[in-house]
Specification:
Layout lengths: L8 E5 L2 E6 L6 H4 L6 E6 L7 E4 L18 H13 L11 E4 L2 E3 L33 E3 L27 H18 L1 E2 L4 H6 L2 H24 L7 H19 L2 H34 L4 H25 L9 H7 L3 H15 L3 H7 L1 E2 L5 E2 L3 H26 L8 E2 L6 H14 L12 E2 L2 E2 L7
Helix pairs in contact: 3-5, 3-12, 3-13, 5-6, 5-12, 6-9, 6-10, 6-12, 7-8, 9-10
Length: 454
């Protein structure tokens, strides 16, 4: 392999001239922050084997504003020296020599250490910053990888940036609409191949989830424009479950994923059909082209599926009934904090809830109570808009490398100049808290005090 001359730079190390090059535009995975920054090095004259260096950070032009670093000549020179000490022979033909750089927390590096000390490792790059979580600390290069964990503990969920309730709902819906325009180009949901889906049901799940979430974002924006944005909170529930279930199935082997996915799919299908049978009876079902013999076979299938699910319950150890509970799925997927935060809120929006009913009633010392307080409805609309775009981004990460096989494509003309202003605008608006302080009769200056109406 020979590097393209366009875009490459010259560097001299130990009196030997080399050319190094960083890809002009990020790949699809690099743009999303799923794969890290890389660069390549070869001899300037009569090149042989190429040096491929992988950094522990995203590219500076990634679309999601992940923690990044730039490549400077001093780093390139260090990598060349390190690779040669490991046996890289740049003047001889052969396979590429790979150098993967890792990092460790800055606090582990002595203050007196100078210069970057890098090592090869098979470990993955440092963790990415999710749209819901706090940013992870940066790190310094390390000399010895044996004492370095390949992932940092997730930062505790924080409320930093919860200033979204001060931004007007009109400003927020405009920012989300701009995000929708760019996201529909970045993640274009198309058709899948039947054979590929049959081999991996997760591809279908990814396709359905991304299509539904983008439609939910559009619907939430339209509802907000019509002063009904508070109803969009129900969309958050489906998006939340997309994130945790896709993350969970992505953590399984293909064989494990296929078996559990098929059983859950059969359970849902047979349960719905048999519930319809129980409600309308066999005579009506026959009019709907469901013969009793077919329905009896469906009942037998459901019993078989239940037995297999109980076997898997013993294998995985999930608590409760025959189906894995959402909280257990979230914990296995590493999304328990997000689940605990959003599940209760979305449940109250979907189901009868005494707490939610009382939450909607706003009173005044004069004795009047209303259930359509405009400010509170706008707060719920802002909360839904904020969560929906963040969960959509989280779903990209949960889908990971399976997206290309899921019928997902991207507009090649899209670059960081299109994406960064949109995300920066949304991030500047801040997060919107689930519970507004006014619901607890609180204001910045303390508990609210009403004047005596008399």
């Amino acid at each position: 392999m020979t590097l393209p001359g366009k875009g490459s730079r010259l560097i001299t190390v130990s009196d030997v001239a080399y050319r190094w090059r960083v890809r002009h535009k990020p790949t699809y995975c690099q743009g999303n922050g799923w794969t890290p920054m890389t660069f390549a090095v070869e001899l300037a004259e009569k090149p042989g084997s190429v040096l491929l260096v992988t950094l522990p950070y995203a590219r500076p032009d990634n679309w999601l504003l992940e923690q990044s670093m730039s490549v400077r000549p001093a780093l390139v020179a260090q990598c060349i020296r390190k690779a040669i000490s490991e046996g890289w022979t740049p003047n001889l033909p052969g396979p590429a020599h790979r150098l993967d750089l890792i990092r460790r927390p800055t606090s582990d590096v002595p203050p007196s250490s100078s210069g970057a000390k890098w090592t090869r490792t098979a470990g993955p790059p440092g963790p990415r910053t999710g749209s819901h979580g706090a940013a992870h600390k940066g790190g310094e290069p390390v000399e010895d990888s044996r004492d370095v964990p390949h992932s940092e503990p997730a930062a505790a969920a924080d409320l930093t940036g919860l200033v979204g309730h001060t931004a007007g709902v009109t400003e927020r819906v405009e920012a989300v609409e701009a995000f929708i325009d760019v996201a529909s180009r970045l993640v274009a949901v198309g058709d899948l191949r039947w054979a590929e889906v049959e081999a991996d049901f997760r591809l279908l799940a990814i396709n359905v989830a991304l299509r539904r979430q983008l439609e939910s974002l559009r619907a939430a924006a339209m509802l907000t424009r019509q002063n009904f944005g508070h109803l969009a909170v129900v969309f958050v529930r489906a998006s939340l479950e997309d994130v945790i279930y896709l993350s969970f199935f992505g953590s399984l082997t293909l064989e494990e994923s296929q078996r559990l996915f098929l059983l859950l799919g059969n359970w849902d299908a047979t349960r719905s059909l048999l519930a319809q049978r129980d409600y309308v009876g066999d005579d009506v079902m026959r009019m709907l082209w469901y013969p009793p013999a077919f329905l009896d076979a469906v009942q037998a299938k459901r019993d078989e599926v239940r037995l297999q699910l109980r076997e898997l319950k013993k294998h995985y150890g999930w608590p409760g009934g025959d189906l894995p509970p959402g909280a257990w799925i979230a914990e296995r997927a590493g999304q328990k904090d997000l689940y605990d935060y959003l599940h209760a809120a979305t449940s109250r929006a979907l189901h009868f809830s005494a707490g939610e009913i009382m939450r909607r009633g706003w009173g005044h010392p004069s004795g009047k109570m209303i259930t359509d307080k405009p400010e509170f409805r706008e707060h719920l609309a802002s909360f839904a808009l904020d969560q929906l775009w963040r969960l959509y981004v989280e779903t990209w990460g949960a889908a990971g490398m399976l997206m290309e096989g899921a019928g997902i494509s991207s507009d090649d003309t899209l670059d960081s100049a299109d994406m960064e202003p949109v995300l920066s605008r949304l991030l500047t608006l801040g997060k919107v808290p689930l519970v507004h302080a006014h619901e607890w009769n609180l204001a910045p200056e303390g508990p609210l005090r009403f004047a005596d109406p008399n």
